Amino acid sequence: MQAIFEGKLDEAGLSAAELTLMHYTELITNSASRSTAEDVQKLREVGFSEDQIAEAVYIIAMFAFFNRVADAFGVPPQNYLITGKVTP
After folding, report:
1. How large is the greatest C-alpha to C-alpha distance in the chain, in angstroms?
2. Which domains are assigned to the chain?
3. I need a labelling partner for 42 at 20 to 30 A (CA). Which of 19, 34, 35, 66 fits?
4. What are the distances in angstroms from CA 76 to CA 17, 67, 72, 88?
5. What is the CB neighbour count within 10 angstroms for residue 56?
């Protein structure tokens, strides 16, 4: 979990499918317009169905939306820890 938090995906012990999905998530989050058919094909090749890929895109987009709304209204960061506990 620490490796994921630090952005060291290749050191996180993820399966090939999980790693592919995390790289795709990063791509969509940072520059969705650069996504290609080949990027989606990589997800298919590691076993993701069309419905799962669509769901991933919707979830990624929803998080981006909520983050932008929170930023626009000045909602402060929640300071969640990797363990899932909230800091005071």
Report:
1. 44
2. 2-72 (1.20.1290.10)
3. 66
4. 33, 11, 11, 13
5. 16
Which pLDDT tens digit goes with each residue over 25-73?
Answer: 999 999 999 999 999 999 999 999 999 999 999 999 999 999 899 999 9
Give the separation between CA 65 and CA 47, rounded to whole angstroms: 28
Helix axes 50-72, 16-31, angle to 10 degrees: 40
Q: What is the dihedral of CA 55, 24, 15, 45, to 10 degrees?
A: 80
pTM exceeding 0.90: no
> Distance (Å, rounded) from C-alpha 48 to C-alpha 29?
19
